[in-house]
Amino acid sequence: MALVTYKALCIDASDVSAVQGFWARTLGYELAELDDGDAVLRGPDPGEEVWINLVPEPRTVKQRVHLDVRAESLEPFAGLEQLTAPGEFAWTTFADPEGGEMCVFTYDEPPAKRLKDVVVDSADHETISRWWADVMGGVLGHDDGYSYLDEIPGSPLESIDFVPVPEPKTVKNRIHWDVTLREGVTVDDLVGAGANVLAPAGDQQEWTVMADPEGNEFCVFPTP
């Protein structure tokens, strides 16, 4: 039985004002600026929520977690640095306003939903994808050297893709997802499944910051 339910995506930014409008336009979500310096983007359907969180540290390395998005053309991204050559892949990779990698898939018809996938660099893609399938639910598949988790309950994503890379994780991920504990499940159950507590919930925050077995951060909210 799954232990948690998908809740939201979070993107770290050292300059929230530089990225909040970009991601709102790219995803087609409504932007709300918050008094604490953060911002939240919301779409019309459940689970369509992306938090832009202010952090002190700048991006310094290739992101181990990035977003894939859908678009009718590459024209909206013309002002960004393009990291792959035209036609090199089925997607085009750009650097967002803070330099974070993102991939754009184009379609002949305007896509109804622009957020497509979350892609996670992995040391052992089969093992970590299986772990998340057990913890969060969804339909697990393996294809052409990578693993993917489709039909995640409560998620607006087409999939979370886990792809093999040779380099190890060295810094905190700048993109992560939040989850909510299912009824009767505790943080201790996640620890028992192989996660680690990085920062416990307390008076200043209702969520617990955890890491999966490969060190990818995620935040765990209590059962409503």
Automatic annotation (TrEMBL):
Show where the Glyoxalase-like domain sits.
9-105, 117-221
Name of the protein in question: VOC family protein
Q: Which organism is it from?
A: Aeromicrobium yanjiei
Stretches of the chain forming a coiled coil according to its record: none
Q: Which PANTHER family match?
A: CONSERVED PROTEIN (PTHR35908:SF1), HYPOTHETICAL FUSION PROTEIN (PTHR35908)
Q: Which Pfam families match?
A: Glyoxalase_6
- State the source organism's domain of life: Bacteria
